[in-house]
Specification:
Length: 514
């Protein structure tokens, strides 16, 4: 059996040129004000596309990256030898580097595969305290509330899923991405197994972890398939992983590292720019098209109260894509807005629908929508953007509409994910505190525990994204009181009409039958 030996990077030796890392460092590491280009500036001549606004102060504290089983740093930075046999089957159950069996766990949201799955899927979603965080005193209501809201919302959601073929394409696409990533890793002499762990539907994270144990994986790279970190997405999955790891002796001894976000990677940025460049060419006058980045929203309180880095990462991501486009002499106007709001609380602004209406009023005629928070097609690209927002845009006078496809299995993107995994391997179970390269993003590489400790450590109570009853003169109480009052009036009316008795009859508003 022929054996090939390849050297893996001694520390992070990214394919990305050094200046790319360096360019990102001041933004990512300093605790001073961050500068962002004003997205609203896109429509204004006076505010050039390069106008800078101070928007965000990173609260990033220095983090200690060591999981319980951390090796000495010296050891982790020793070049690893990747041992792959040319005859090893691609789906071998025992992928080895040295004596280690390497696994990559892709974390994703999951989606209902049939219309019957919609309500239980929604139940799982709303039962997650990172989606609806109830006050401590009311935690026991989490499941009944999730049941209530999921039943209440299911019919609306089902309409959406019916419109895109009767279910979410997420599982199929994520499985395909996992397979392409595995092939890419093997082609780079890293024989790893790749697993998919969904948060709210099959294959659940718990199932993936069982398989990881059965396969005897000893080093695990955890890679959420969200380019930007949010408490409500990657954070929620990491919290689940933490609880699974904590209770399992095997997992406690398995070394791991997490790549919490990767929006800043050159390969991802270039892949997004490629897609935008290609779609722009379809328009008659490509330079007149406004590039409309539409990100999934989160409630404002996640960012302002719990310190979710999601908004800052999203804005930085858009900046980096725009910089890449500028290098290609593409200098279109652009804007960023947030979609998919659920419930009455305030979410990140500007909202996508309101921004489309504004752009229409300002006379914009061509719009290219760019979904930016997710790398697969899903209900919010296929239904919300392609149907609802397109319809709204056409109604608002926008004549030419285009949409950039999600990255899916785009080869340059998958290859870059593989590089991200390879670059993280020296940090599996290791301390990376002083490694500048490991700290490129607002949420740098670390272990599950460290990341959860760094973000949202107190797990503060947040206003829920859906209407939940609260005591006092609050918005939700007003909403629920209003609904209760309307219901009571309806019941009284029905009683009046059916019994012929009541206030309206006594006051002579309705005729007395007697
Ligand atoms: C980065 C992406 C996402 C963030 C942030 C996010 C936060 C978030 N979502 C909800 C509520 C719902 N999300 C739903 C579906 C859904 N959400 C995302 C991504 C993010 N969510 C995706 C990719 C999908 C689609 C999955 C699919 O099946 O294709 C749904 C269900 C669909 C619907 O009824 O609209 C809900 C509900 C909240 C409350 C939230 C932040 C707190
Ligand atoms: Fe969502």
């Amino acid at each position: 059996m022929a054996e090939s030996i390849a050297m893996l990077p001694s520390s992070i030796s990214s394919n990305a040129p050094l200046d790319h890392h360096l360019r990102l460092l001041p933004r990512s590491l300093c605790n001073t004000q961050k500068l962002y280009r004003c997205p609203e500036a896109c429509m204004s001549d006076s505010l050039s596309r390069n106008s800078l606004v101070a928007k965000y102060t990173s609260t990033q504290s220095s983090l200690l990256f060591a999981n319980k089983q951390s090796q000495s740093r010296q050891k982790c930075l020793t070049p690893l030898k990747a041992v792959a046999t040319s005859e090893t089957p691609a789906n071998s159950a025992s992928p080895l580097i040295g004596n280690d069996k390497i696994g990559v766990l892709l974390l994703n949201l999951g989606g209902p595969e049939t219309l019957d799955d919609v309500q239980p899927f929604l139940f799982n979603l709303f039962a997650d305290p990172d989606i609806i965080r109830l006050p401590r005193l009311f935690r026991f209501l989490q499941k009944p509330l999730a049941q209530f809201i999921s039943v209440f919302r299911a019919s609306k959601s089902k309409e959406g899923y019916a419109a895109i073929g009767g279910g979410s394409p997420l599982r199929k696409i994520t499985d395909a991405q996992a397979e392409e990533l595995r092939k890419s890793l093997w082609s780079k002499n890293v024989p790893a197994k790749v697993y998919v762990g969904m948060r709210y539907w099959h294959p659940f994270t718990e199932e993936a972890i069982q398989q990881i144990k059965r396969d005897g994986i000893t080093k695990l790279v955890v890679l959420p398939l969200y380019p930007q970190f949010s408490i409500s997405t990657s954070g929620s999955s990491l919290r689940l992983l933490e609880s699974i790891f904590r209770e399992d002796e095997y997992l406690v001894n398995m070394q791991h590292t997490v790549i919490p976000s990767w929006y800043q990677r050159e390969g991802y940025i270039k892949a997004m720019a490629n897609l935008i460049e290609m779609e722009l060419k379809i328009f008659d006058s490509p330079d007149k098209v406004v590039i409309f980045f539409s990100a999934h929203g989160v409630p404002l309180a996640y960012v302002e109260e719990a310190g979710d880095p999601y908004k800052a990462e999203m804005e930085e991501c858009v900046d980096l894509i725009i910089e890449e486009l500028e290098k290609r002499k593409i200098t279109n106007a652009y804007t960023l807005a947030y979609q998919s709001r659920v419930g009455p609380v305030e979410w990140l602004k500007p909202y996508t629908d309101e921004t489309i209406i504004d752009l229409g009023k300002k006379g914009v005629k061509s719009l290219l929508a760019v979904p930016i928070s997710f790398v697969s097609e899903h209900i919010e690209t296929l239904e919300e953007i392609d149907v609802e927002y397109k319809e709204l845009a056409l109604k608002c006078g926008i004549e030419n509409w285009g949409r950039v496809p999600a990255l899916g299995c785009e080869p340059a993107f998958i290859s870059d994910l593989a590089d991200a995994v390879i670059e993280s391997l020296p940090y599996v179970g290791a301390m990376a505190v002083s490694n500048i390269e490991a700290r490129q993003s607002l949420v740098p590489l670390g272990s599950v525990e460290e990341l959860l400790a760094a973000y949202d450590s107190q797990r503060r109570e947040l206003p829920p994204p859906v209407t939940v009853w609260e005591w006092g003169w609050t918005k939700s109480a007003e909403t629920w009181n209003g609904r209760a009052a309307m219901l009571a009036v309806l019941v009284l009316l029905v009683l009046e009409v059916t019994t012929g008795e009541g206030f309206l009859h006594q006051w002579g508003i309705l005729p007395l039958f007697r």
